[in-house]
Structure to design on (341 residues):
């Protein structure tokens, strides 16, 4: 079995190991597509506390080629999406079969091996069977969609609510589309005009370039002076929390989204939180909303394929890692294909 492994900051090597069989409760998958994300780049750049050496790639789409003893929910030939979180299998919640409530969750590509490799063995609870109508290049975005749904639920977003989003990243654009699906009004704020243009191209009408205009004044105008009932602050964006808190209406709701491997220091004054009665929630994954995300994608309620701006083969992985480190924000998303392996 072949895999790319980050052995030290700035160093990625091709490794080979003997073939393995699926253990009881597990399945062996042939990996078809993986999405290169900012956490992977941060591990390569030495910006996280990842356990090295590690195989990068937080999630993937694969095909089941072998089932271990006791596996009934996944069959040979099933296409599956494998989410970034790995249950430990040892804590009381796991032993009770409640893998989504694991007390010692591992993160693929950071605290345990990820999926930039040709084959992998996973616990059957990690694989989500995919409907035929969801192609591989769309399924790789399911983690982002589930986080977006989790955010909408945490904000208790209702029809007509304004949702200010800091960051026109792939996650920000997907969150804006999911907000539209729930009949809310997204306003996306960023400093990158190219990303804002992509957001508008994908149906997000209200976009604000924070380098060219005062975002608070623009949001004040768009909302008729009441500001946004809900604000989603993406921690990897270039916006400061103090600034985005100022977008929030009195008694509004504010969510901080921080994917593991992308969370830096978050500094702000909490004065506005107290004075305006803002409810603040933190979100780091969307495991509880994954099935809703599958349904949204299967029903073509949102578009994700335009977010892929580069596609590379398994053999081109080292070059694209180096390219993304040099280009701070890089491509919106890079798809890695494994068909030749």
């Amino acid at each position: 079995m072949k895999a790319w492994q980050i052995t030290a900051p700035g160093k990625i090597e091709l490794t080979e190991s003997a073939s393995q069989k699926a253990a009881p409760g597990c399945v062996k998958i042939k990996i078809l597509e993986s999405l290169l994300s900012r956490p992977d780049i941060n591990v390569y750049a030495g910006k996280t506390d990842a356990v090295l050496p590690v195989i990068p790639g937080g999630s993937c789409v694969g095909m089941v080629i072998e089932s271990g003893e006791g596996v009934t929910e996944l069959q040979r030939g099933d296409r599956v999406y494998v989410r970034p979180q790995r249950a430990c299998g040892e804590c009381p919640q796991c032993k009770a079969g409640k893998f989504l409530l694991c007390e010692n969750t591992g993160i693929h590509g950071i605290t345990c091996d990820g999926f930039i490799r040709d084959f992998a063995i996973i616990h059957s609870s990690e694989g989500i069977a995919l409907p035929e109508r969801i192609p591989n290049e769309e399924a790789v975005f399911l983690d982002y969609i589930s986080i977006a749904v989790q955010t909408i639920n945490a904000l208790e977003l209702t029809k007509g609510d304004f949702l200010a989003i800091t960051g026109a990243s792939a996650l920000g654009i997907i969150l804006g589309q999911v907000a539209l699906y729930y009949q809310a009004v997204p306003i996306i704020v960023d400093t990158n005009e190219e990303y804002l243009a992509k957001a508008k191209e994908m149906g997000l009408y209200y976009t604000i370039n924070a380098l060219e205009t005062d975002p608070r004044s623009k949001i004040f105008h768009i909302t008729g002076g009441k500001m946004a009932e809900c604000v989603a602050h993406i921690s990897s964006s270039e916006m400061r929390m103090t600034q985005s808190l100022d977008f929030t209406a009195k008694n509004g709701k504010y969510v901080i989204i921080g994917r593991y491997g992308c969370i830096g220091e978050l500094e702000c004054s909490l004065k506005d939180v107290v004075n305006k009665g803002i409810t603040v929630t933190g979100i780091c994954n969307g495991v509880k909303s994954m099935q809703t995300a599958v349904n949204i994608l299967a029903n073509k309620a949102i578009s994700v394929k335009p977010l892929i701006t580069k596609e590379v083969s398994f053999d081109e992985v080292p070059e694209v890692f180096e390219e993304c480190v040099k280009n701070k924000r890089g491509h919106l998303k890079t798809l890695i294909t494994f068909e030749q392996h």
Observations:
- The two ends are 10 Å apart (CA to CA).
